[in-house]
Amino acid sequence: MDIRNDMLRLLKGRRQGFSLEQPFYTDPDYFKLDMELIWYRDWLFIGHDCELPKPGSYITVQVGDYPVVLVRDQHGKINAFHNSCRHRGSRVCNTEKGTAAKLVCPYHQWTYELDGRLLFARQMADGFDKSDFGLKPVACESVGGYIFICLAKEPADFAPMRAMIEPYLLPHRLREAKIAFESTIVEKGNWKLVWENNRECYHCAANHPELCKTFPEAPTVTGVHGADSDPEMVAHWARCEASGLPSKFRIDPAGQYRATRAPLLRDAVSYTMTGKRAVQKNLSDSVSTDRIGSLLLYHYPTTWNHILGDHAVTFRVLPISATETAVTTKWLVHKDAVEGVDYDLAELTHVWTETNDQDRRIVEENAFGILSPAYEPGPYSELHEGGVIQFVEWYASFIGPRLAEGGRPALRSVA
Ligand code: FES
Ligand SMILES: [Fe+2]
């Protein structure tokens, strides 16, 4: 059976406004196509500029089959490379993060400059040309403190994304923040179930007692429609924009990324049990108000974000298999904020640690039920699950034409 045609047939035959057929959530061959046609082609959020504080700082990540290393070079620029030695392929950097003067392969010590050039390869034959064996580059862009990579040979133009998102992000000065805490959990569910769950708050009241103390479950906040006819949202945007913070709801024409600023409930300013700030020092020296609510930002397929006055919580989704997804959460605070003085780490992380675990259980139960032979696609609530419908439409609109094209996306060649 031709899996591509099978997948395309199910996409074309699907009922609008309904969840997808079972194999989209469970089948390893469908998962491979998701990886090849979405994950190896689109821009992916990997980490933050502030995680690479100085030349030689690096972080590594595994995207499907591809190990990748992000490193700040001697000129301060952040580069991404395939983390596979040009000698015999060993991983060059084999820890999650670190600092190195040069990137030295642990196998035979081929040594690379921080910009990827091969500097040193012991006792190779005469005529060996080091310039042919630099680390293979991966497209890499940084915007407002977020680092994105793209594994495609010809990445989509990043400029429109930068133009839309950057004004929202810059006032928060995340490049100068620091990571107060990070956690990675593995959810036993397909990456699309993780997203579907994220894109609605229909489930919040019954599942998220901590988050619901401060976060509004209104579909005008979580969805993609109706925010501009919600007087509370419109008043919030006006207030925030008057203080210099871009806030209105914006979404790109393809529906891949969105930004909007939403008020929190009542007089809450942060995701804490009391609604009071978790960090005494503002996240940004240039954002003075506490009443800015949360900047909600998502970019399919890797990230959703909440940026508050006192801290930011950022999320990265990475698929592991058809039925496992890693979700990494990072709590960012002002770089000079001191744990135990300006914030209590347990208080800072409590609400989203609980919420993440609740969402993990929800996703796992959803995945479990979908495995039933009795499963069939069910209808989304138009009122509450407009965001989910939009996510599924985005997915279908991206993968459908790529399935129809055929072929396998090529990797970037060595520069
Ligand atoms: S595989 Fe890297 S030096 Fe041999
Ligand atoms: Fe949730």
TrEMBL record:
The keyword Metal-binding applies. Residues 43-149 form the Rieske domain. Signal peptide: none annotated. Coiled coil: none annotated. GO terms for molecular function: 2 iron, 2 sulfur cluster binding; dioxygenase activity; iron ion binding. InterPro entries: Rieske_2Fe-2S, Rieske_2Fe-2S_sf, Ring_hydroxy_dOase_asu_C_dom, Rng_hydr_dOase-A. Its cofactor is Fe cation. Keywords: 2Fe-2S, Dioxygenase, Iron, Iron-sulfur, Metal-binding, Oxidoreductase. Pfam families: Rieske, Ring_hydroxyl_A. This is Aromatic ring-hydroxylating dioxygenase subunit alpha. It comes from Mesorhizobium ciceri.
